[in-house]
Design a protein that fits this description.
Elements (H helix, E strand, L loop, with lengths): L2 H9 L12 E13 L5 E4 L22 E2 L2 E2 L4 E5 L4 E7 L11 E8 L6 E5 L12 E10 L7 E7 L5 E7 L7 E8 L9 E7 L3 E11 L12 H9 L4 E4 L3 H4 L22 E2 L5 E2 L5 H10 L3 E6 L3 E2 L3 E2 L7 H15 L5 H8 L10 E4 L11 H15 L4 E4 L10 E8 L1 H6 L13 E9 L8 H16 L4 E6 L3 E3 L12 E3 L4 E3 L1 H10 L5 E8 L5 E8 L4 E8 L5 E6 L9 E7 L18 E5 L5 E6 L3 E8 L2
Parallel strand pairs: 1-32, 2-15, 2-25, 15-18, 18-21, 21-22, 22-23, 23-24, 24-25, 26-27
Antiparallel strand pairs: 1-29, 3-4, 5-8, 6-7, 7-14, 8-13, 9-12, 9-14, 10-11, 10-13, 16-17, 19-20, 27-28, 29-30, 30-31, 31-36, 32-35, 33-34, 33-36
The structure holds alpha-L-arabinofuranose.
The site of alpha-L-arabinofuranose (AHR) has 11 residues, from loops.
Length: 632
């Protein structure tokens, strides 16, 4: 929407008496930087929740490719195919699988089958198998047969509504030993659609066993076993400084034996056993530890690795001491896997896994939300990890997930799940934080308004909160919104109010997504001394300077239902009269984006020509504005 139209929509229908708030004054001393802005302030937090990876970022299209559910072996998302006169059954076979990590398989017993009467198995994908025209899909599976007479396996993508075959490929006769097969599916002039399914079928009787049935569309930077292009592009547009992974509750697991065991997520996919996750669906671990680091590399983000610290969510913990040593060693191995040279044990394994160059780590987080641990064991556990990690890696900053005693944490991780009003009321939260204490990471924060993704009211709460973090970013050095992703299909969401939504084919950013992107692409390097005088309790500001570009960046958030005039006084500084204004706004707080209306609320860039040392600017109701004021 063009800005004039946007402004007209915002102002329409308001009685004159309530047209505006009392004018506010923002006084800025451009010669007085008062604190450095953390260059790593805005990052991402991620975990397997809401089908973030499986059925989300991780581009795999086959759902339940290794026949496991959170409750054990399962044929979920698979059905039997009996075309024409074909007769067949399928069942989990726990006696045979392609590897030690994947000891079971799906057994297909075909009693009757023939050409045009094929028998086989069907996968419904993650709410469909998406196809686009003229695209190549790379697939593979492990299989064996009891007799080569079962013949070739034909793989098809079939449209759910029309029955049309959208793409087809054939794998010649199966072997009687477990073997990996590859296939390529090519679409022609098909209509883009998610309403498709995948079939693997045969034309002769016999028995075949399948495992790790896989199909990938083109991925970001064509990486094998890679990520969805649209979602990576959306993340790239946020210019995130870091990625906090792998959780969240996903790191802890419900039980100690369901924790994130990184060693089981590396190497060939057939050697990854997969694992139950606390968000009630099974994790394929196709996006494993190395893939997290490669994701960081692709988007130029610092990895912020959280290591399992001996606490799982059902109040299971390991006390500090000898019992905790294996967990500490596991964390040291993990750091060596990521950062060690190829002459180290774990660095060499990383090289064998395909990434000889080491990654660099500045931050390690010990656990997640350990304030939930009622045993009071966290201070001891943190200290044990801290000492061991510091001894080996003195430059790494070690983040505590709860206040600790007996040791000083480098950084403490705060989490906020709030309403917009709660954030409005608390934007000065960090103003008085002790500058001599630990630094702060706000590792999870969000305005929880709107579902599945947040609405304009949430974006206003977020933006207000960001002004407070930014003004205090000498102490708040890292901040990441959570959760990042949600699959918006029925049953896809475990946690409402998320940043980016998608189905199998399309994705969109919430208003909060755009607010984040606006803030992170207008960061600046120093906070300028400024003072906002306003009677409007829903007006917020942050002023930084981008020294390299001689630019003052003014962020204004008007969470009220009325426009807000602000007299901006730059205390004598020479300011270019033309300035860019980036605006995110909507007529109501309930307005939002959705999978069917993905760009209703997006930032609009306009130009003002009255910028000066002192000038008046009006911020529309329910809007977030960023003014780029260039200094002469
Ligand atoms: O973001 C959802 C969950 O909220 C995270 O997994 C957990 O850390 C927090 O309680």
């Amino acid at each position: 929407m063009r800005l004039e139209k946007f402004a007209a929509v915002l102002l329409a229908g308001l009685p004159l008496a309530v047209m505006a708030q009392q004018p506010a004054t923002l006084t800025i001393d451009t010669a007085k930087p008062i604190a450095a802005v953390s260059p790593t302030l805005y990052g991402l937090m991620t975990e397997e929740i809401n089908y973030s990876y499986d059925g989300g970022l991780y581009a795999e299209l086959v759902n339940n490719r290794t026949f496991q559910s959170n409750r054990g072996p399962s044929t979920a998302d698979w059905t039997i195919l009996e075309n024409g006169d074909a007769r067949a059954t399928m069942a989990i076979d726990k006696t045979t699988g392609p590897s030690e990590a994947l000891p079971l398989s799906l057994k297909l017993t075909v009693d009757t089958a023939a050409a045009k009467s094929e028998a086989g198995i069907v996968n419904s994908g993650y709410w469909g198998i998406p196809v686009r025209p003229s695209e190549q899909y790379h697939g593979s599976f492990y299989a064996k047969t009891d007799s080569v007479s079962i013949g070739a396996v034909t793989i098809r993508i079939i449209n759910n509504d029309t029955g049309a075959t959208e793409a087809t490929a054939t794998v010649p006769t199966l072997s009687t030993e477990w073997k990996r097969y590859e296939y390529t599916l090519k679409t022609g002039a098909v209509t883009a659609s998610a309403a498709n399914h995948l079939t693997l079928s045969v034309e002769h009787p016999g028995t075949a066993w399948f495992s790790l049935v896989s199909l990938f569309p083109p991925t970001y930077q064509n990486t094998p076993n890679g990520n969805r292009i649209d979602l990576m592009q959306k993340l790239a547009a946020m210019h995130p400084a870091f990625l906090r992974f792998p959780g969240g509750n996903y790191l802890e697991g419900d039980h100690i034996n369901e924790r994130y065991e990184w060693k089981k997520t590396i190497g060939s996919l057939v050697d990854r056993p997969t694992h139950p996750s606390p968000w009630n669906y099974h994790s394929s671990d196709g996006l494993g530890l190395l893939e997290f680091f490669e994701w960081c590399e692709d988007l130029h983000m610092q990895p912020l690795l959280a290591v399992y610290a001996g606490y799982s969510m059902r109040q299971e913990h390991v006390d500090a001491g000898v019992g905790l040593e294996p967990y500490v060693q596991d964390a040291l191995d993990e750091i060596e896997y990521a950062t060690g040279s190829t002459s180290t044990k774990w660095g060499a394994i990383r090289a064998k896994d395909g990434h000889p160059a080491p990654f660099h780590i500045n931050y390690i987080e010990v656990g997640n939300e350990d304030w939930f641990d009622k045993s009071g064991s966290y201070s001891g556990r943190y200290a044990q990890f801290y000492k061991a990690i510091k001894a080996a890696y003195p430059d790494i900053q070690i983040i505590a997930t709860a206040p600790v005693t007996g040791i000083r944490a480098d950084v403490v991780d705060d989490h906020f799940y709030r309403s917009a009003q709660e954030f409005f009321n608390d934007v000065h939260h960090y103003d008085k934080t002790d500058r001599n204490g630990p630094k702060v990471m706000v590792g999870e924060w969000v305005t929880r308004e709107g579902s599945p993704t947040t609405n304009m009211g949430a974006a206003l709460g977020d933006a207000a909160w960001m002004t407070g973090m930014e003004r205090n970013s000498d102490i708040v050095v890292l901040a990441s919104y959570a959760p990042l992703f949600v699959n918006v299909n029925p049953g896809g969401m475990q946690w409402p109010s998320d940043l980016i939504g998608y189905d199998a084919l399309n994705s969109y950013g919430s208003p909060s997504y755009y607010a984040q992107a606006m803030f992170s692409t207008h960061l600046g390097d120093h906070v300028l001394d400024s003072k906002l005088d306003a009677t409007n309790p829903r007006l917020f500001d942050s002023v930084t300077v981008d020294s390299k570009h001689h630019r003052v960046i003014v962020k204004l958030v008007n969470g009220s239902s009325q426009p807000q005039a602000v007299s901006i006084n730059l205390s004598g500084a020479k300011v270019h009269s033309n300035a860019h204004v980036t605006t995110l706004g909507a007529p109501t707080t309930e307005a939002t984006n959705s999978i069917t209306d993905p760009t209703r609320i997006v930032p609009v860039v306009s130009t003002i020509s009255n910028a000066a040392s002192t000038f008046t600017h009006t911020v529309p109701r329910y809007s977030i504005q960023i003014l780029d004021l260039d200094l002469n």
